Amino acid sequence: MSATPAPLFIALADSLERQIRDGVYRGGDKLPSLREIAASRGYGKNTVVSAFELLVARGLVEPRRGSGFFVKEAVPEADGEAIEGHTLRRTMDIVWLLRTQLRNEPGQLAVGDAFPPSEWLAGARLDRTHHKVARGGLGTLFRYGDRLGYAPLRHRLVRRLADVGIDAHPQQIVPTHGANEAMDLIVRYFVPPGGTVLIDDPGYYPLRGKLHLAGARVVGVPRLADGPDLQALERLLKTLRPRLFFTQSLAHNPTGSDLSLPKARAVLRLAEQHNLLLVENDVLSDFRPATAPRLSALDGLERTLYLGSFSKSLSAALRVGFVACSADLAQELADLKVLTSISSSEYAERAVETLLAERRYAKHLEQLRGRLAEATHNAYALLDRMGAEVFVRPVHSLFIWARWPGFPDAQALAQAMLGHGIVMAPGNIFCVNSEQACPWSRCNPHAVQDPRFARALERLRG
């Protein structure tokens, strides 16, 4: 198969970077304006804007209000293979992608959004928790929290884990600043520079950035409709001997797929045969049945580390996640947390524990799942009418992995849709080889039903 050309904005950014490094543009020089480059190269304005933002993320240029973009006086050095292999450079490209996904411009429609609508989460009544938290812990609200996290929350999490078949003790649970800090701690603890790590492909792209920043060799395991490709996984285990495999068993981001029970057992057998640790990301646990197959439930946290979060079911602003693992490893990760961030937020942990303890939380989850099931059903029907292909069809899913005939490159489609105020999540950003064209996009079932999306796609087809 021939190599697929890089998206236009990346190709333009690479071209300008070469000119900067070759001395065509020196420190302090002003780059041609957006309009000049768009006219001279025949690019759309959004393509040029994206290229300039990518150059800013790479640390090569800086914007000056009202004046344009200027080459920085001190351009990061790179020569030979270092230009291609520099881990921070690769990470900064992912940071740029994150900035693009997190940006919420007025009037834009985020079709690739990874969250339920805010009004769906309002039923948790986060606004009522502050006074309860303040009354219960006034003496601790002005100091760092415990290195192991808020004890009542850890006890509450033990009960929640038992509900999904995971037998754990409070000493095996470390609350973190969201599931992302849990991933970061695991990467710091286990991954040496040059170490090989397996991840889902496609998969959670901020994890890929963390691994690049650590200097790891990142290898993808193809994700199928029922979980990882077992043949590919076994081949990689035999040839590369990796120590870690980061995977998402249920409600997989971005495909929405679930791990089947036979495949879960097969993955655990391979892990035992090849001395592999499995890091199971289950941040969407609240959106799947307690009886659904989870690696950590089948394994008993022997070869598994289990990550959880409340960002999707309560609030991403609270930034409360956790890792469950062996007691000895939990102590080590807690010490590492002290070194990197002192402690997680006891205020936020108290707020989550307060919400979980209330009776209305169960009702909130029931309503949330019901709304999501209705939105997912309606989204499937709409996508079918639009002629889209859907990867898998769970009853309710925050993520729908879809592609449209006539659009073989989702990145190019996303660039075109930006001109109509539509922000998509093209599939290549989730893939280990992000420069290869991918026809798939991650879609939010609620957002795709906004009439602006169908109208914009029809205009492009026309």
From TrEMBL:
One MF term in the entry's GO annotations: transaminase activity
SMART domains: HTH_GNTR (SM00345)
UniProt keyword terms in alphabetical order: Aminotransferase, DNA-binding, Pyridoxal phosphate, Transcription, Transcription regulation, Transferase
TM region(s), chain numbering: none
Record InterPro entries: Aminotransferase_I/II_large, HTH_trans_reg/aminotransferase, PyrdxlP-dep_Trfase, PyrdxlP-dep_Trfase_major, Tscrpt_reg_HTH_GntR, WH-like_DNA-bd_sf, WH_DNA-bd_sf
Keyword DNA-binding: yes
SUPFAM superfamilies: PLP-dependent transferases, Winged helix' DNA-binding domain
Keyword 4Fe-4S attributed: no
HTH gntR-type domain: residues covered: 6-74
Alphabetized Gene3D superfamilies for the sequence: Type I PLP-dependent aspartate aminotransferase-like (Major domain), Winged helix-like DNA-binding domain superfamily/Winged helix DNA-binding domain
Family, per entry: In the C-terminal section; belongs to the class-I pyridoxal-phosphate-dependent aminotransferase family.
Protein name from the UniProt record: Transcriptional regulator, GntR family with aminotransferase domain
Lineage, opening ranks: Bacteria, Pseudomonadati, Pseudomonadota, Betaproteobacteria, Burkholderiales
